[in-house]
């Protein structure tokens, strides 16, 4: 266990990098214990750590993902129904390191291929909410139990959300053009060289897409960590406040960011005493219910189905938030 913990500290938490940045800050005449020095140390360390982990993880995950293009995913899910299909769709969603907006075209493709609405929505919820990179990044900031718990609860939300939407039989609420979109049946095959090139390109593409959110997220995290008094945050989002989870969820919805940009904020909030469930609710709202993705989804589905989707996912997020605030001592 000590060996695993040591490897986790060095390779994921990058304690060596923290020590290096702290020494560099000190050599510049800044005190890491001061507000300014602490903010600079938090910002530099988190930015470097996140981009190192992102580059390595996205390359590895994209190589795996190259084996599951949309055509193959449709082939795997085709003809399946029931809770088993929803679980499979949610699991396949974890293999797509896309933001919520990028998942909409896949949703259209699955709908056009005739997949059940329950299956497509399980995928749509899971894809931005949970991915393999988030497991590693969460473990690097918090711990493996918290990371695995986040992934498990995200999959539960995706499976239950898709199941509920499927039971409501709202297929007529999907736009006609989405149901009639052309779907290629051929499954493209890639050589190992092509897969490596694809993974390399994905690293560049995703880093290019998320870097502003990472910088903003780390900057907000640094401000929360070093400038906002814990008492002020506790007044609004303290574990003893029943409204903390709903407020965190509402705050998260207008924000458009990947999980990579929300992690530094979550780290700072937990350090200030905000409940784990409240932080998870915030992260889930940002990734699964961001306003831009809802605007895009509105072009594909009609308002009754859109409101149903938002309602089901929101209820799932709230339930998970309250649950994990109650069992937080298990993770301490």
From TrEMBL:
One Gene Ontology term, aspect cellular component: plasma membrane
- Alphabetical UniProt keywords: Cell membrane, Membrane, Transmembrane, Transmembrane helix
Q: Which regions span the lipid bilayer? A: 42-64, 104-125, 132-160, 210-230, 242-263, 269-291, 303-327
Protein location: Cell membrane
InterPro entries per the UniProt record, alphabetical: DUF318 (IPR005524), UPF0718_permease (IPR053166)
Q: How does it sit in the membrane?
A: Multi-pass membrane protein
Name of one Pfam family that matches = ArsP_1
> Mostly located where?
membrane
The family assignment reads: Belongs to the UPF0718 family.
Q: Which named protein is this? A: Permease
């Amino acid at each position: 266990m000590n060996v695993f913990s040591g490897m986790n500290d060095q390779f994921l938490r990058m304690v060596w990098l923290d020590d290096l940045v702290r020494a560099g800050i000190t050599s510049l005449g800044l005190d890491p214990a001061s507000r300014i020095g602490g903010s600079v140390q938090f910002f530099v360390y988190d930015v470097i750590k996140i981009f190192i982990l992102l580059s390595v993880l996205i390359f590895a995950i994209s190589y795996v993902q190259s084996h599951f293009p949309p055509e193959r995913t449709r082939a795997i899910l085709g003809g399946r129904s029931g809770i088993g299909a929803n679980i499979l769709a949610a699991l396949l969603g974890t293999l797509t390191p896309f933001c919520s907006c990028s998942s909409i075209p896949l949703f259209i493709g699955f709908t056009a291929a005739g997949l059940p609405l329950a299956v497509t929505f399980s995928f749509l919820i899971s894809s931005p909410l949970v991915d393999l990179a988030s497991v590693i990044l969460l473990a690097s900031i918090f711990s493996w139990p918290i990371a695995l718990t986040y992934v498990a609860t995200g999959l539960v939300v995706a499976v239950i959300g898709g199941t509920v939407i499927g039971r409501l039989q709202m297929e007529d609420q999907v736009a006609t053009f989405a149901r009639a979109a052309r779907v290629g049946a051929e499954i493209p095959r890639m050589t190992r060289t092509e897969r490596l090139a694809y993974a390399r390109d994905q690293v560049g593409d995703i880093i290019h897409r998320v870097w502003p959110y990472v910088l903003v997220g780390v900057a907000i995290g640094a401000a929360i960590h070093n400038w906002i008094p814990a008492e002020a945050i506790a007044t609004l989002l303290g574990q003893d406040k029943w409204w903390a989870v709903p407020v965190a969820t509402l705050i998260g919805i207008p924000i458009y960011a990947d999980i990579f940009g929300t992690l530094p904020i979550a780290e700072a909030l937990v350090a200030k005493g905000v409940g784990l469930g409240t932080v998870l609710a915030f992260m889930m709202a940002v990734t699964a219910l961001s306003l831009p993705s809802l605007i895009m989804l509105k072009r594909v589905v009609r308002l009754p189905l859109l409101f149903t989707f938002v309602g089901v996912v929101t209820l799932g997020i709230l339930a998970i938030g309250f649950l994990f605030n109650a069992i937080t001592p298990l993770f301490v």
